[in-house]
Structures are given as C-alpha cells and as structure tokens.
C-alpha cells in the first residue's frame, strides 16, 4: 500500500504543482514580457510539455486511488468523508482537464497556426480560467487529503 500512496501523492504533486507554477509564476511573467503572438506560442508549447504529465497523473491517480479505496477501505462504504470528497473533486478535476484537452487546447493550436491571435487569446483565456478552477479544486483536495482524516 505504501507504493500506492507514494505514487498517488507524487501524481497529485506534479499536477497541482504544475498548475500553481503556471498560474502564479509563468502567467504574470509572460503577460509582462511577451506580446500576444509570443505569449500564445509559449503557452501552447508549455501545454504540449505539461499535458502528457497531466495524463500520466490522471491515470496514476485513478489507479492508485481505486487501489487504495478497495484495498484499504473495502469500498466506498468503508471510506471516510475525506476519501469521498477526494474522489468527487478528483473526478471533477479530470473532467475539466478532459474538456481543456478536447476543446480549447486544440482550438488554441489552430489559432496559432493561422496566426489568429485574437481567437488564440480567447482560447487561452478559457484554458486559464479552467486551470484556475482546477488549481482551486486541487489545493482544496490536497488540504482534504492531508487533514481530512483528522477532522
């Protein structure tokens, strides 16, 4: 079980930490230093590198979460409220990521290829908002995961 917990925590750290870095550090610097064509291109290429890690994190979180849910708690009936909250928030985060992956992210790539910076900015804005929501959910999930069983 220690392997499952370790992999689960590492996957969550990579995903939530990446969103925190993007939102709190990279975004303000990119806005201050880059014009829209360079900024949009930077973000698209950053997402190209980050999103495979998110896919890996999603898979690891699902597998290890279910492994622990059924291996440790014997199913949902044996799990505490904090486990239920982690599952719900994790599934919501995954759904938001899937939406980003299949909708605004490809549209951002098409807008950049067409040098349609206005359309690209609109898609990046949507991605930014959804990542912001996911970041809030992710931080709340980390708090629940860390302290939930002690409440």
Automatic annotation (TrEMBL):
Name of this chain's protein: Putative membrane protein
Keywords carried by this UniProt record: Membrane, Transmembrane, Transmembrane helix
InterPro entries registered for this protein in UniProt: Cu-R_CopD_dom
Residue ranges annotated for the Copper resistance protein D domain, each copy included: 45-146
Organism: Halomonas fontilapidosi
Taxonomic superkingdom: Bacteria
Annotated Gene Ontology cellular component terms: membrane
TM spans (from-to): 6-29, 50-70, 82-102, 130-150
Keyword Transmembrane helix: yes
Signal peptide, first to last residue: none
Record's keyword annotation contains Transmembrane helix: yes
């Amino acid at each position: 079980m220690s392997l499952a917990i370790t992999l689960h925590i590492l996957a969550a750290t990579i995903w939530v930490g990446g969103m925190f870095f993007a939102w709190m550090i990279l975004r303000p610097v990119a806005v201050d230093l880059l014009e829209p064509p360079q900024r949009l291109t930077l973000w698209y290429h950053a997402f190209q590198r980050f999103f495979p890690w998110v896919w890996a994190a999603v898979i690891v979180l699902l597998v290890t979460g279910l492994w622990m849910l059924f291996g440790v708690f014997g199913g949902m009936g044996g799990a505490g409220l904090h486990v239920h909250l982690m599952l719900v928030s994790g599934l919501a985060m995954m759904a938001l990521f899937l939406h980003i992956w299949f909708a605004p992210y490809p549209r951002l790539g098409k807008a950049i290829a067409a040098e349609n910076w206005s359309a690209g900015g609109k898609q990046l804005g949507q991605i930014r908002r959804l990542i912001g929501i996911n970041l809030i959910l992710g931080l709340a999930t980390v708090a629940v995961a860390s302290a939930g069983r002690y409440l």
